[in-house]
């Protein structure tokens, strides 16, 4: 006979969660899910119409997790269909195609759409986000590198994984980390555990690395006007050096950014009398 204590223990052990997939059309959301759930890859593009729904069971430590997966259509045409599915999600897969910069740039607007649809429920700290840099098998057409993707993700407290639904690379590791974080969050009273949110670098450091990567010339990199004086260049350099010094900054890409700043200063000073 089942005792109340047994029932309570079983209840604690089983968990139901809802996860959703977001990202531009054709980035590989459905294929990532299919690779994990069905261990296969479909090369032909079959656009998701509105929403695809599926359930899978996974084991995390001593708990059985029933995962409800809502795979969203990325095409803007389906906005009206997907907008009501954002609510009550514990996990979000944010997917982009490493060969299409616009799909990476679109991640901000996907977060924006989600926040808008969730309205007052939009407590992003109670949701585990995983960024999938997908199609890494297509190395020749890659335009968004790992440092850039990782920086975007980790500066927001999101996980980052390089994945290929085609080869299977990164897929199991990504889902394991995803479900294990969701379980940790549920056991932590619905808050993302602090260890994940604190990533060892500040938003200012992450924003500065991003700005330096995207700067158009050495003046722009140091944040001074063309024609600035030696003092102005040195002052700007010192500020960036303190922020990005490899001993102090662990933001992805900060070492390269630091080197670029050193080179920019050297080349500017050469030409200033
Ligand atoms: P929507 O449902 O329209 O939002 O698209 P989606 O993001 O679900 O894309 P889907 O999974 O349908 O994949 C789009 C196309 O990319 C298909 O032709 C897939 O075969 C291909 N694809 C998906 N993942 C990968 C990958 O990792 N590598 C390669 N080479 N192709 C992939
Ligand atoms: Mg799809």
Question: How would you describe what is shown here?
Answer:
The chain has a six-stranded mixed beta sheet with strand order 2-3-1-4-5-6, sandwiched between helices. β2 and β3 form a beta hairpin. The protein contains twelve helices and six strands. α9 packs across α12 (254-271) and α11 (230-244) runs antiparallel to α12. The chain folds into two domains: 15-188, Rossmann fold (3-Layer(aba) Sandwich), CATH 3.40.50.300; 203-271, Helix Hairpins (Orthogonal Bundle), CATH 1.10.287.110. By secondary structure, the chain is of the alpha/beta class. 44% of the residues lie in helices and 17% in strands. It has helices at 4-13, 29-38, 79-82, 101-105, 107-118, 146-154, 171-187, 194-197, 203-213, 218-222, 230-244, 254-271, and strands at 14-22, 51-60, 63-72, 91-97, 128-134, 159-162. Bound molecules: guanosine-5'-triphosphate and magnesium ion.
Topology, pairings included?
Layout: H1 4-13, E1 14-22, H2 29-38, E2 51-60, E3 63-72, H3 79-82, E4 91-97, H4 101-105, H5 107-118, E5 128-134, H6 146-154, E6 159-162, H7 171-187, H8 194-197, H9 203-213, H10 218-222, H11 230-244, H12 254-271
Parallel strand pairs: 1-3, 1-4, 4-5, 5-6
Antiparallel strand pairs: 2-3
Helix pairs in contact: 9-12, 11-12
The structure holds guanosine-5'-triphosphate (GTP) and magnesium ion (MG).
Residues 23, 25-31, 42-48, 73-75, 134-135, 137-138, 164-166 line the site of guanosine-5'-triphosphate.
């Amino acid at each position: 006979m089942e005792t109340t204590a047994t029932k309570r223990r079983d209840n604690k052990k089983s968990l139901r969660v809802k996860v959703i997939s977001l990202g531009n059309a054709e980035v590989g959301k459905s294929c990532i899910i299919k690779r994990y759930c069905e261990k296969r890859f479909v090369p032909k593009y079959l656009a998701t119409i509105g929403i695809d729904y599926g359930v899978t069971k996974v084991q995390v430590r001593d708990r059985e997790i029933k995962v409800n997966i809502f795979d969203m259509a990325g095409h803007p045409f389906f906005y009206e269909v997907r907008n009501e599915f954002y609510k009550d999600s514990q996990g979000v897969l944010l997917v982009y195609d490493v060969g299409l910069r616009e799909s990476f740039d679109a991640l901000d607007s996907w977060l924006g759409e989600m926040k808008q649809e969730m309205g007052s429920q939009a407590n992003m700290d109670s949701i585990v986000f995983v960024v999938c840099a997908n199609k890494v098998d297509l190395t020749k057409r890659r335009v968004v590198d790992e440092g850039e993707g990782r920086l975007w993700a980790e500066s927001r407290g999101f996980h980052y994984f390089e994945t290929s639904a085609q080869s299977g690379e990164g897929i199991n590791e990504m889902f394991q980390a995803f479900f294990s974080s969701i379980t940790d969050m549920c056991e932590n009273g619905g808050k993302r555990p602090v260890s994940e949110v604190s990533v060892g670098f500040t938003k200012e450091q992450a924003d500065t690395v991003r700005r330096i990567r995207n700067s158009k010339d050495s003046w722009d990199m140091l944040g001074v006007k063309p024609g600035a004086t030696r003092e102005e260049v040195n002052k700007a350099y010192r500020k960036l050096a303190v922020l990005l010094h490899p001993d102090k900054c662990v933001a992805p890409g900060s070492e390269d950014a630091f080197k670029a700043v050193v080179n920019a200063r050297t080349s500017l000073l050469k030409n200033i009398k």
